[in-house]
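Methods — Computational structure assignment.
A single polypeptide chain was analysed. Its primary sequence is given first, followed by the predicted tertiary structure written as structure tokens.
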Amino acid sequence: MYLINKRIRPISHCSQDVIEEFEKAILTDSDIRAVKRGSQCWFLPFYYLDVIAKKIGIQFTKILTQLFVFDSSEKQDTYFAVMMGGDFNKFYPYAFLNRKKRKSYFFDAWTKDQPNIIDFIRKCKMDQVFVSSSQVTVELNEKLGCPLVSWIPEGVDISVYKQYPYNQKDIDVLQIGRKYDWYHEQILTFLKETNKIYLYEKTKGTIIFPSREDFINGLARSKISICFPSNITHPERAGTIETMTNRYLQSIASKCLIVGHAPQEMLGLFGYNPVVEIDRNAPLEQLKNILDHYSDYIPLIEKNYEIVSKYHTWENRWNQIKNDMEQYGKGNG
């Protein structure tokens, strides 16, 4: 199997780090070969021809599919790619000019992006697809009319993150990315008046930690990491999809206490609730009590860390994918 881990343009946000974590875990598998760097020269002409074709109304990818995709009986090996939402150019030209099977893993396959994702799956004649959300799995299979898509939750590379002693954590509360405004407004005044260290996005798009190293150290320094699923913080993007994003796992890997809301699928994955659910009737009083009695939550933090280390790493996820591929192959053999 070949892993396509080369791109025309790197993703400029933190999602690229998550993709690279997963790809690193995949490449520890001796059965996996990375696409050779020299093959990247194929990307540019196909990518830019597609961009130009779309502007003048020509379905370039459809033409390529009709001209070059070989019959499924001739497929000999597999290309696999980890992609973010609708970032399809990573698969060019491998989706068209070979006899290999085509499989992929999608982060952030939100409802609004699904028409393009389904179009990509059909045009490229994808053999199997994995997504990070259980709800998205159901939606895509219904729209495709066949059980082509499987759910594989996000994972984490524990070794990437740091764990500071609890008495050395000097950030009281951290909220990375877009805030849940209602909760933020409930706690902000109290945290300011009591001189607590509260880091958050002060203006939309502001980066709290400018480098990857700063981000990892910042999580390790934090007592509380506020986490809500994207359907609460980004409803215009996620719609009604409630899923466990990587921030939950990164926070656990850094031994933060998560305060916020656990997606339903996370409860099933852990077998208990690893998140301290906010008290909507008394959010301020609850947070004050947590900070005053933080040591009471250390057993939960340690339990979460142990569970993630055992069951929710990227190596675990890759093994799940390989097992699903094997079972899917038997069912379609």
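Note: The domain at 158-311 is CATH 3.40.50.2000 (Rossmann fold).
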